[in-house]
Design a protein that fits this description.
Elements: H1 4-13, H2 18-21, H3 23-39, H4 47-82, H5 93-113, H6 117-123, H7 144-157, H8 162-176
Length: about 180
């Protein structure tokens, strides 16, 4: 019998990046936004700003190839060595815990990123656009994952497997767009 978590584990093991796979959807949504704005005779995109947004998104994804492995290895090390809880294989509990924790932790990280200088230094990239459109969602800093990880590490202690954490984090990023 195949479990849902086993299926997700196999997909991630095949190195499918849900965010990279969603790029065509992001581009389609931005195209639709552009068409809707033109129909309303509004300008929501300036070429230089949109290129900067997309460039930041591409740079973050490319750097993420190298950085994500390190961050996930740190998470996995803590999970294997210090998890306080072990859920049965196929249990829905780690998914529920991860979904709630990732959402709340992201909120905490984002809020603190506006208040703590070292976090703002990394997060400010996202706020440097002069426009407000869907492309701005792609303007992410390369080192955001480094500053976010401490907010997510308690999940490893709570027994949430690395693949569940990684999947939930990716889904969180997708629905934020």
């Amino acid at each position: 019998q195949r479990s849902w978590s086993g299926l997700v584990a196999r997909r991630l093991a095949m190195r499918l990046n849900p965010i990279a796979l969603a790029i065509p959807v992001f581009l389609l949504a931005m195209g639709l936004e552009l068409l809707a704005a033109r129909a309303r005779r509004r300008e929501v995109y300036r070429l230089q700003d949109a290129l900067a947004d997309l460039g930041c998104g591409v740079a973050q994804q490319v750097a993420g190839v190298f950085l994500a492995a390190s961050l996930l290895a740190a998470y996995e090390g803590l999970f294997r060595g210090a998890a306080l809880v072990r859920f049965p294989e196929g249990s829905a509990w780690p998914w529920l815990v991860a979904f709630v924790w990732v959402d709340v932790a992201y909120y905490g990280w984002h809020r603190l990123s506006h208040e703590v200088n070292v976090l703002w230094a990394i997060h400010a990239v996202h706020h440097q656009s002069e426009d407000y459109n869907l492309a701005v969602a792609l303007r992410q800093a390369i080192l955001s994952g480094v500053t976010q990880l401490p907010f997510y590490l308690p999940l490893a202690l709570l027994g949430v497997p690395t693949l569940v954490y990684a999947t939930t984090s990716a889904v969180s990023t997708l629905y934020q767009f």
